[in-house]
Amino acid sequence: AEVELRLSHWVPATHPIQTLGIEPWVKSIEEASQGRIHITIFPAQQLGAAPDHYDMARDGIVDLSYTNPGYQAGRFPLYSLVEIPFHMNNAERGAVAMHEWYAPIAKTEMSDVIFCLANPHDPGTIHSKGPIHVPADIKGLNVRPAHATMARFISSLGGAPVQVPAPEAREAIAKGAADAITFPWNSINIFGIDSETKYHLDMPFYISAQLMLMNKDSYAALSEENRKVIDDHCTPEWSGRFSKGWAENEASGKQKMIDAGGHTIYEPTSDEVQLWRDASAPLIDTWKEEAKAKGVDADKMYQDYLEALGRHDAKF
Amino acid sequence: MTSADLIAVSGFIVLFALMLLRVPIGVAMGLVGVGGFAAITGWKPALNLLAQSPVRTITDFNLSLIPFFILMGVLATNSGMSRELFRTGQAWFGSFKGGMALSTVGACAGFAAICGSSVATAATMTKIALPEMKRVGYRDDIATGVIAAGGTLGILIPPSVVLAVYAFITEQDVGKLFIAGIVPGLLAILMYMLTVRIAYARSLPAGEPFDLGNAIRSLGGVWAVLLLFIAIIGSIYFGVVTATEAAAVGSLLTALIGIARGRLGPRLILESLVEALRTSVAIYTILIGAILFGYFLAITQTPQKITAFLVHLDLGAYGTLAIILGFFLLMGCILDAMAMIILLVPIVFPVVTQLGFDPIWFGVIIVMTVELGLITPPVGMNVFVINTIAREVKLPTIFRGVMPFVAVDVLRLILLVVFPSLVLFLPMTMK
Amino acid sequence: MTKPKIGLLERISLGIETVAGVLLALITVLIVVSAIGRYLLAWPVPDAFDLSRFLIGAAIMWGFASVGFRGSHIKVDIFAEMLPAGARRWIDSFAWAVLLAFSLLLTWKMLGRVTSAFYSGEATFDLRMPAWIFLGFIWLGVAFANIAILARLILVASGRATLEHFETVDMAGDDATEDRA
Ligand code: NA
Ligand code: NA
Q1: C-beta separation of B265 from B89 below 8 A
Q2: Could you read off the pLDDT of C14-42 as tens digits, one per residue?
Q3: What is the distance between the alpha carbons of residues C39 and A176, in angstroms, rounded to a whole number?
Q4: Is C171 inside any structural domain?
Q5: What's the gap in Å between the CA of C20 and the closest CA on chain A?
Q6: How far is A237 from chain B (nearest CA, A)?
Q7: Which of B122, B148, B385, B413 is exposed most, by the fewest CB atoms within 10 A?
Q8: Ligand nearest to the backbone CA of B70
Q9: Do the domain assignments include residue C30?
Q10: Is the pLDDT of residue B389 over 90?
């Protein structure tokens, strides 16, 4: 092919992220470019560790990098708004909203790469060994948080975040190092944690998002017609399409637990939901302070996010 | 051959040239990795690998059990635990013909249970057991052969630094791998003891009279080792703590026992820390280089091509396995055990899993294969270590003495290939 | 260089090793305390994970300086040892020059990692301590390593030292207490 691109991510090649997200996207690019662009996928951290994926795109180690900005706490403070719980309730439509909201912000916050796609996972929730219904139930518990924002939330509720690598999450729960974990639904089954956590809070608690990023030089080196192909695949619509398959796979996890039996899936009352949202309010204040420190109009930026979510029917 | 293949082949050639010129193995791998990556992507991205990857390797939490298990062995040696093990072995086995050789095997096994390294086990036992065996009239070849072979138990009987690195590379459960090493380790002890008695039946000195009181008293000295082993392996087996935590707790307990018995002071503790760190750094350097080299292999897609090639040869699962193990034995002629695992396992592991072999079982098999490399000529690390400490015993003498043990090692390897459940039944009972 | 200078190098090297050794002790205690906190007291030490991994990294990099000076990296010794002393000196000098080149490249590129962390505000997970401080501390180790490796290279090239290959093992096998006590 005229252009050879390397795409790196950190999950196994068989993961729904690759089979239902990355592969169809790559195929569409190759077809739209009539074979001029060829993309080789390097899964499973073959070209670099998961937390290094942003730098790998920046430094040209790869051309395209599937990155979780949340792996590096504190580095992308504006982006971290999406990690605050109780905002997004649907990944496919939420991806479109997040893309529209973040694309202009990325021009400054991620100025040394090209922002291409947003890929939030299906809203995850809190899975625990004992029942958790309201924020006060977190007090005194050890919780494995999804990201640094969630760790802050757990701490503010009187719980203790326990950071362990994802593959050790099951071990941590089984061995009593953690009493609860925040995870998307099917990941609980995939990682075999379903045998440990029998209680689940049935609400779209939080998301963690991944981004597809591109190296600037690789982008600049493209011919005009090839650049158009890439541009056409870095759109809010594609963010939605990219996110759909994996989200459905994760969402199916809840039904699997119901079918398997032995699980208590608790749907909180609207009063209880309000307790959770109130408890998370300080996170928004902290975010606004950090955003202001970056010199942006934090209130407007926050409103923009809510509007984008509302526009695409993805608002909690 | 594509140009990527050509670059990959040239990379291997330069790598071996640099290694033969005594460039540290990790550094050779790292430089060739970066250089090869540059040949494909250009220099700027390739050099940037050095910005992220080495820091990521040394700050990887999962690898931190390596310095801890090494530290535990050093602390145990420095607080005299290895000598006590030998004395206890002597008190119980000393009355048999060739009893002191049997005691040495037992002491090696006991030390292996708290030390993660084979060369350290061999070095320690050379200092303790060799003078004693010479004193009572053992032939040099028998005495050093037993120690060289016994030393290999260090990386098979848990804890094992080599198994830990294998777990890291192949993303397997390190706890399961440790537990999987127990039965093959016990089998090795038994077979080594039989070898002493059968292969050297005519040349062994007589034993010393058995003294029950002395034998029982000798146990007082080894309770500490026993306690440590049970605490560490037990807590890993029952899943009380993670392997890293067990390693840290083990180091701290070893230090505390040493202090409580008046064997370890601040100076000796600091020396032990520095010593453990130096050994760990040597291993981490290889890991840093191997991971850089791995990126080079990945970008040229070498492992996939080798897998495809080997599977295409259609030698059947066991035929291919035999080729892989033979290749490891061959590389064992020039490479260190750890370097072999780090450099070669990523290349052959996809083949092995594709052929349907169990990854935990393969870990134990491959460790036993590199163990063989430790005692076979021309380069056998354990043999060299003994030779460095006991300068008066020549290398050919040690290699001659160790030959019967090489033979039973091969036998044991075949046994475990034919009956994989000997390796797997114990880890399968874990939660 | 004269003998007293080798003594000075020894002392500097010992100083670096002491820092690294103390770090290793600290991490051991930190992980044990964190484990006790997690399992027995339901009170995990905040940032125990990030702290211990950063400190391990620092201990290893400071140790990298030590090993660069001692010459006890794992290498293939068999061919070098078959050669006469003169040729071996050339080979050993070459080997350590290559190590120095690697270390210099590492120092240069890792500095970029540190400054990147400084400007990006990267922080630890729980307490949000700036990551660049830890990365900078790790970087100091590799910076020292250049000096240590150069020192050994000069000693080797001028024929006043060799690359010892079992130094590490020797000490590991030193069943010291009973002999000293
Ligand atoms: Na061991
Ligand atoms: Na060998």
Answers
A1: no
A2: 999 999 999 999 999 999 999 888 878 77
A3: 7
A4: yes
A5: 25
A6: 31
A7: B413
A8: 1
A9: yes
A10: no
